Amino acid sequence: MLTIDEKAAEAIKTIVRESELPAGAGLRIEARIDDVSQPELTVSVEELPVPGDEVVAKDDARVFLPPAAAAYLDNKILHADDDDVAGLRFVVQST
């Protein structure tokens, strides 16, 4: 299962709050895995998970993962980095 670290949880809560979606909304991470060594991950803000999604939560920060993304992100950690040049970005690391 994906683990969300503290900085990522705070970033997710901020993004969802600024999107003005109702409570229970979260980030959806989708994975397009044409090349296993370099999957393409996309992130969007969604009001609710889709049936079949795995829902990962930490401190009210929710991430919705369709099956392909859940499989790829299994045993990984979601981090958030924020700097003046690149802005906010999420980073996935193996455990």
Short account of what is shown:
With 95 residues, the chain is of the alpha/beta class.
Can you lay out the helices and strands and say which pair or pack?
Layout: E1 3-4, H1 6-19, E2 26-32, E3 40-46, E4 54-58, E5 61-65, H2 67-73, E6 76-83, E7 87-94
Parallel strand pairs: 1-6, 2-5
Antiparallel strand pairs: 2-3, 4-5, 6-7
Please explain how this structure is put together.
With 95 residues, this protein is α/β, with parallel strands linked by helices. The protein has a single domain (3-94), classed as Hypothetical Protein Aq_1857, Chain: A (Sandwich). It is 22% helix and 44% strand. It contains 2 helices and 7 strands, in the order βαββββαββ. It has helices spanning 6-19, 67-73, and strands at residues 3-4, 26-32, 40-46, 54-58, 61-65, 76-83, 87-94. The strands form 2 sheets. The chain has a 4-stranded mixed beta sheet. The mean pLDDT is 90.
How many H/I helices?
Answer: 2
Structural class: alpha/beta
**Termini gap:** 11 Å
- Quickly name the level 1 CATH class: Mainly Beta
State the major sheet.
4 strands, mixed
In helices, the fraction of residues equals: 10-25%
Average pLDDT number: 90
Shape: globular
The fraction of residues assigned to DSSP E strands is 35-45%
CATH superfamily: HesB-like domain
From the alpha-carbon coordinates, what is the Rg to the nearest angstrom?
A: 13 Å
Number of domain units? 1
The spatial strand order of the largest sheet comes to 3-2-5-4
